[in-house]
Design brief:
Blueprint lengths: L3 H15 L6 H13 L11 H9 L2 H10 L4 H32 L10 H17 L23 H10 L5 H24 L13 H20 L5 H7 L6 H23 L18
Length: 286
Amino acid sequence: MAGTYFHFWLAHRAYSELFPSDSNRKAKRAAFFAGSVAPDLGFFPGGPRRFSERLHHEQTGDFLRALRDRVQDDLEWAFVSGWALHLYTDIALHPWVNSQVDVLLGNLSGPFSGRRDLWHLRLENGIDCDLLSRDELGFLWDVDIQFPRRQADCEILIQVGKIFFAGDVREAQVRQGMESQKKWVRRLPMIFLWTGNVRPASPKSGIYPFGRLVKPLVGKILGDWLGRVQRWENMAALARPLWPQPAKLSWAEKLGIEALSAFKAGFCEGFDSFENMDLDSGVLTA
């Protein structure tokens, strides 16, 4: 769930350059945006968590090309291209996020001092909250994502998933993850607003004073209390995002722009040279 709007921010920048305007532009944009967050669908409520974990650590380049090779139409190509953008973005950003979390943990004590994943999520949510608070990025509050469907066959993601990670791919659970992700990408901005973590332009800004009022309580009760239980890390990170300092936000943006440049180069050559990289560490895997 964390980092969703950073992915959308880059998807917005990439789409207008790579996909020319045509009669099917809206549908292709929704498919591209879905692809840009689809590797994370297992981290949303009810989704196939183990599947998403493996998608981030195992055979990432081979999986991407297997998706590419099974594309049947423009919508599927838009989805697969968005998927590739997600990979380039994670490789660029995650090592930096992890390094920031390591510094933070070195100065912490108490029940949260060893919770690396929790602080990773909180930092990514903080970056998302910054983006959602910018007037010029108002489109992030109403992003439409649509996973391409086939008439007589299962979705391309399920097809390829069964080939690579058969034991962790159940059709019903993957589809549940898709539907959950579609719902939550619309809910999350309002959750951040009602908890006082973003301040958007009107007309929603009337909610902001209430959110600021309850923010300390939400952070203490939900952020800290839920944060003590590993299975509730996602919700705890939503309740208490960690906003980076302006200089670090600028650095995260710089990394995102570098990822976008690498993605554009990969797009032009069909992602042939994208290697099997671990998306968390940025390290080449077997």
